[in-house]
Amino acid sequence: MLEFFSHIPVTSLLQQILVGLSRTTILFIVASGLSLVLGVLRIPNLAHGSFYMIGAFLTYSVAAFVGGKAGFWVALAAAPAGVALISLILERGLFCHLYDREHLMLLLFTFSFTLVFGDIVKIIWGSDFRSISTPALFQGSFSVFGLSLPRYNVFLLVIGPLVALGLWALTRKTRIGKIARAAAVDREMVGAVGINVSLVFSSVFVIGCFLAGLGGALVAPTQNITQGMDHSIIMEAFLIVIVGGLGNIWGALLGALIFGLTDAVGILLWPQFAIVFPYAVVVTILMIRPKGLLKSTW
Amino acid sequence: MKKSFWMVVCGMLVIAITACPLFALDPIKVGIVDCYTGPPSTYTNDVRDAFQLACDKINAKGGILGRKIEFTTRDSKFKVDLGLSAAKELIMREKVNLLMGTINSAEALAISDLCKTEKIPLLVTFSKSDAITGEKGHRYVFSMNENTSMAGKAAAVGLSKKPYTKYWIGGDDYEYGHAIADGVWRNLKKLKPEVELLGQTWWKVGESDFTPYITAMLSAKPDAVIIATGGKNCVPFLKAAETTGFNKRVPFYMHTATELSTLQPLGLDAPEGVLGTSNYFFYYPETPENKEFVKDFQQAYGRPPKVGALYGYITAAFIAKAYEKAGTIDTEKFVDALEGMTVDSPVGKLTIRPYDHQVMFPMFMGVTQKAPGYDFLIASDIVTISGEDVMPTIEEIKKARGQ
């Protein structure tokens, strides 16, 4: 076995790690949104994946509508905003009445929304596969030191830390972030000191869904925009959130890193059984630390 | 009182006679069970629409044996249990004469099993498991499309003529992926014994980002790669192949890479020079029959026909011709008539092999290329591998059936 691994050149391993990291970016963006909602609002939002899917479809439509080179960039700004708007309507109209319900009820409620959104997407966009071009700036690949990296993946590698930094600033430096963190620990206490919890909840929900939409928009040029992309992402996002610690954004980052890297490296080292790799790692971690790696807010 | 009663009876008779002047007899009922939800519907809608087109034509010419041909569809949502209960319902309640479908291989095999006991013909459209007419074949099941062993054999014939010896295989980790990969490799090894398999990569069916898989495969430095992925995975795979420059560094073959359903969504972003095989292109062969079919389909539905349209169209042609030949709507005589039957189709004459009930489709192997006048890539340098050459031998079928 070891002999087999020694055949793999270091450059391949490095390249694989970088590709894995760029994938981590998407996973982190989506999972952090889920974790935020889970931590502050205590909603296990299964429809989070649907927001991701809608983000991708909106990106397709906006990019097609605007057209040309600017298409994708306009879509990258517009699609997450569109998703945020949808989530705001949903939160004000429906979710805000349900915060006190038990988790099973919320689970069923958000699950029903995955079905509703699935059908809405089918009605609006049909069942054909959709695809948008990688922006002209990031087509092709970079070659450095014998490494070959698709340019778009490099772009994702830059975006990932930026989003993480933004989230750090949001939760640590802004008033709403501080209140949200407090609410995550003790919701009643925050209400008792006279803070409008409802407003905070609404903002957090919208920010969480915005992140899902952003993930969908960023992933759109790299894959097939199709129904069913909600299911695969929500499963991975939940795993990441659970491994990292429920409601902990840095846990989401750690979980995404573990998931993305074991996945990419597994593909290189053990290609025939690569599917098992990230899940086996997740199982091992949960066996050792059932509550996740970092402190859960639950 | 008595007079008005007769008036009513006469009136009703007049209505009955004028309403169906042609079809005094019961219609021939076809039940279609297929997945019309989610990504597979991009394939199945074409089967249904082309079948509808063909039925309309047949009915306009006076139907089959003076009977109208009708069909009803049931959405199985890609689920075996739903498909099976829909098939049962169609047989028991709707009393269909025969069944069609499905794109899901497991579902097709389950319905095929039901049809064997119920003695109802099943004309399989789209599911590509070679077990349907191979290992699990029986008197009442027919396959109206190519299958994994035919695709494998066709690819092997094409690849054996290329100078590659060191291969890597990557594919979907489920029935279809493994079947295609096995088919290609088994036949390639037979045709060109010096080929060597460096390794294999298997990914899950819903995989959406292929970049890490491609970079890993490339680092093994094979001469060529066989990609055994299908359905909705084809589009993101080709996309990742373009961004990683896969096709420029190592040539690769992917069954259905050249199909319209794969290339159209990608527009001009699809990679050039990818080897693929398919049963049908709306732009090839350039025969009057194909041109007429494309024109009719385009007129009716406002889009060019994809491969599924060919399957739907010939299924209707086979049904009509078999009943005409049998001269009755008796199921046993219909099955006898179908065995060995030949029909004209947009891709030339197609025959059902009597032994295993498999339509002997020619396979078109080509490479993806940009072409003037198209806003997506098309297949070029097309080589036709004849139906006889891609079919598994009868000995192989016998062996699979344990005879």
Explained architecture:
Chain A starts with a helix and ends in a 10-residue tail after the last helix. Chain A has a two-stranded antiparallel ribbon. In chain A, a hairpin with a 2-residue loop joins strand 1 (141-144) and strand 2 (147-150). Chain A is built from twelve helices and two strands. In chain A, helix 2 packs antiparallel against helix 9 (197-219) and helix 4 runs antiparallel to helix 9 (197-219). Helix content of chain A is 72%, strand content 3%. Chain A is an all-alpha fold. In chain A, 48% of the residues are buried. Helix content of chain B is 44%, strand content 19%. Chain B contains 15 helices and 15 strands. Chain B has a five-stranded parallel sheet, sandwiched between helices. In chain B, strands 7-6-8-9 form a four-stranded parallel sheet, covered by helices on one side. A three-stranded antiparallel sheet of chain B has the order 10-14-15. In chain B, a hairpin with a 4-residue loop joins strand 12 and strand 13. In chain B, helix 2 (41-60) runs parallel beside helix 12, helix 3 runs parallel beside helix 4 (105-118) and helix 12 (307-326) crosses helix 13 (331-338). Chain B is globular, with a radius of gyration of 23 Å. Chain A binds chain B through residues 8-9, 11-12, 15-16, 19-20, 22-23, 122, 127-131, 133-134, 139-141, 148, 150-153, 219, 222-224, 226-229, 231-232, 263-264, 267-268, 271-275, and chain B through 37-39, 41-42, 45, 170, 173, 199-204, 206, 208-209, 211-213, 215-219, 232-233, 235-236, 239-240, 243-245, 261, 265-269.
Question: Biggest interface in this structure?
Answer: A-B, 45 and 40 residues
* Beta-strand content estimate of chain A: under 5%
Please give the largest β-sheet of chain A: 2 strands, antiparallel
User: Treating each run of at least 4 consecutive H or I residues as one helix, how many helices of chain B?
Assistant: 15
The largest pleated sheet of chain B is described as: 5 strands, parallel
* Cα shape of chain A: globular
Number of strands of chain B: 15
Question: Could you report the average pLDDT of chain A, rounded to the nearest whole number?
Answer: 88
Radius of gyration of chain A using CA atoms only: 20 Å
Regarding quaternary structure, how should these chains be classified?
heterodimer
**How many individual β-strands of chain A?**
2
How many helices of chain A? The count is 12
Structural class of chain A: mainly alpha
